[in-house]
Here is the input.
Amino acid sequence: MSIEFLLTSLIVVATPGTGVLYTVAAGLSRGARAGYVAAIGCTLGIVPHMLAAITGLAALLHTSALAFQVLKYLGVAYLLYMAWSTLRARGALTTDEDATPRSAAKVIVSAVLINLLNPKLTIFFLAFLPQFVGPGESNALLRMVELSAVFMLLSLVVFAGYGKFAAAIRHRVMSHPPVLAWMRRVFAGAFAALGAKLALT
Here is the structure.
């Protein structure tokens, strides 16, 4: 397992997006348990993207160097796009003001749908994940399953962390704009740096 894959996956998972916002909102509005349940749901929402990528790209990994170059630059474009979109991100974090308790099943279903409809995950699995599997690797399918499982585990841990943190500050301040702006710049810079490194590899 390369450090590049772990670092890139961690940045992708930790970057505030729809799944993170939903998990944070659940933690802020209903406490740590709801945040953990939302994290599980968002992680389950990754499975369809993983299956689509694995079943469609396992054979492609053995085709040609051209295919790998195409995937490589798709990955570069994806990382640069994420840097640009992170810098452009606007809007305040909002919480669910509905005081009616929601069942764990409803929270999970909502979280699954959020990640299922997240195009960032589709692009990640289709354009980026295969770059960490060697073109001549005999067990390419197994390798992609392994990488996907690590990505899902990171997602669960990071999202649960977001939910726990949100629950811890739910009775204090919901958010602090200067801190959010600083985080956006850091994540955008990291995406751009990884994209440049991948392009030059």
